[in-house]
Specification:
The chain is of the alpha/beta class and 516 residues long. The protein is built from 19 helices and 18 strands. The protein starts with a strand and ends with a helix. It binds 5'-O-[(L-methionyl)-sulphamoyl]adenosine.
Length: 516
């Protein structure tokens, strides 16, 4: 794949509360993909942001006793702080209350109205205030309870603006069927194709909501959140306010969203784009959910954990590594402090940290920390394994199997540790076989150099620390794919032993957490 441009987005979270670990999971995954593409030499635009309109937000502001705008300003600041703490390298943060976004959304609505893709009609049905959505009876518990909000739906009758989604159904089905990459993972495709069959024309305005973008020419209604929210993917890169920038980045290469909103992204969004005559994104990927010890994350259950707290306590990379490595990407996964601690201790403290530490200690004692020349004859499997790992990482990342890409890097690290055990450098030192010893240490450090580059999208801070200890002076952030060829470590490089890369999480610490 030749380097090119890569535009990816996450869902924009509702601005009713600061992000929790589930929202963080999505942003971490998107960040890993963004960093991976930068490493490969692509020009990347990574967009995230906040979805700030609708009743949910108005109610939260009311409960806090502040105006909705002041409320979302606060949540937006907080969200950006959390993303900063987790090293989320976004290029744009779109807020739906941004005047440029509001104007562009009104423009989109007006255009759809003018071309009769939106029309006014009486819209009635069972309405869930939590979802701000009309519901099909078959999706309700006992025909009247919203399963998501556990509250009864209300019969509602409104004059609404309606989007003729049905007009685009056939084209959309054709697109999904003939572009297997468009909707991933595979498991969500059939479900969406089935849904599409009966997906109704869609109410796209609300009379009962005040906190939103007014319908152009009809201020008694606001534009319903999905047209408002989905349009962020266009307005966040200039649509309506910087056409050159928009043309440069669109179409999106990846919309990464949770499985709960995949249908909006795989049905409503492409139908809107077809109506607007805008090319469709390359891929919509619906990731799974994180649960807390098997339970859904919820305020009522009281199991919401603040990602920033975890980052402050264990380091951003520990939580990044855990969620990316532990959860099979595309499936649901679970967070518990026990599995978190075990995974981080085994992979970061032991596997990665010890390989480096042991090697630098011997290098310091025998060569004053200086890297010896390469000794190809004694490198064994390592060069071949490193090369295979690079290929595997690319292949797995292109398939969005993030966890498997990481697993491949740790397989290489396993081999490095085995290589250390079997070549026994401490014995070589004792026997005075310095030529051989230098070669062994070179091989280990070279494999670690490659692992640092490969791991940098997932654990950027630890990878940079590893890099620093290797003593390489050109920054890790400047490395590109070519740097992954075996033999790149220059003999004579002076390493810098700076102590354990990642100290083991102590038993007392996790014990305290478990108790709450
Ligand atoms: N505002 C809408 C999205 C509009 S996108 C044009 C929304 N917001 S949300 O705050 O409810 O969710 C934001 C994202 O976080 C969604 O992709 C959602 O799937 C994801 N997650 C929310 N809880 C989650 C978990 N427990 N685990 C993983 N992702 C989760 O929907």
């Amino acid at each position: 794949m030749a380097p090119g441009k890569y535009y990816l987005t996450t869902a924009i979270d509702y601005g009713n509360a600061p992000p929790h670990i589930g929202h963080a999971y999505e942003k971490i995954a998107a960040d890993a993909v963004a960093r991976f593409h930068r490493l490969r030499g692509d020009e990347v635009f990574f967009l995230t942001g906040l979805d700030e309109h609708g009743n949910k937000i108005e109610r939260a502001a009311q409960a806090a006793g502040v105006e909705p705008q002041a409320y979302v300003d606060e949540v937006a600041a907080r969200a950006q702080q959390v993303w900063g703490a987790l090293n989320i390298s976004y290029d744009g943060f779109i807020r739906t209350t941004d005047p440029r976004h509001r104007a562009a959304v009104q423009g989109i609505f007006a255009r759809l109205l003018a071309q009769d893709d939106i029309f006014k009609a009486k819209y009635e049905g069972m309405y869930c205030r939590g979802c701000e959505e009309f519901k099909n009876e078959r999706d309700l518990t006992d025909g009247k309870i919203c399963p998501q909000h556990q509250q009864p739906v209300e019969f509602t009758s409104e004059e609404n603006y309606v989007f003729r989604l049905s007009k685009y159904r056939e084209r959309l089905r054709g697109h999904i069927e003939s572009h297997p990459q468009f909707l991933q993972p595979e498991t969500r495709r059939n479900e969406i194709l089935n849904l599409l069959e009966t997906f109704p024309d869609l109410s796209v305005s609300r009379q009962s909501v005040r906190w939103g973008i007014p319908v152009p020419g009809d201020p008694s209604q606001v534009i319903y959140v999905w047209i408002d929210a989905l349009s962020n993917y266009l307005t966040g890169i200039g649509y309506g306010w910087d056409d050159a920038q928009f043309q440069r980045w669109w179409p999106a290469d990846l919309h990464l969203v949770g499985k709960d909103i995949t249908k909006f992204h795989a049905i409503i969004w492409p139908a809107l784009l077809l109506a607007l005559d805008i090319p469709l994104p390359y891929q919509v990927y619906g990731h799974g959910f994180i649960n807390m010890a098997g339970m859904k994350i919820s305020k009522t259950v009281g199991n919401v954990i603040d990602p920033q707290d975890i980052a402050a306590e264990y380091g951003a990379d520990a939580i990044r590594y855990f969620v990316l490595r532990e959860i099979a990407f595309g499936r649901d996964g679970d967070f518990t402090y026990e599995t978190f601690e075990a995974r981080v201790n085994a992979d970061l403290a032991n596997n990665l940290g010890n390989a480096l530490n042991r090697t630098l200690t011997i290098l310091e004692k025998n060569f004053a920390g200086q890297v010896s020349p390469r000794h190809a004859a004694i490198e064994g499997e390592l060069p071949r394994l490193a090369e295979e790992t690079v290929a595997k990482v690319v292949e797995r990342m292109e398939a969005m199997a993030l966890d498997e890409a990481i697993a491949a890097i740790w397989t290489l690290l396993d081999a490095v540790n085995k290589y250390i055990d079997s070549t026994a450098p401490w014995a070589l030192a004792k026997e005075g076989k310095l030529d051989e010893l230098g070669g062994v240490l070179y091989a280990v450090l070279e494999a670690l150099r490659i692992a640092a580059i490969l791991a940098s999208p997932y654990i950027p801070t630890l990878a940079a620390k590893l890099w620093e200890q290797l003593g390489i002076t050109t920054p890790l952030a400047e490395q590109r794919w070519e740097a992954l060829a075996w033999g790149g470590l220059a003999p004579g490089t002076v390493t810098r032993k700076l102590g354990p890369l990642y100290p083991r999480i102590g038993a007392e610490l996790a014990g305290a957490k478990k108790k709450g």
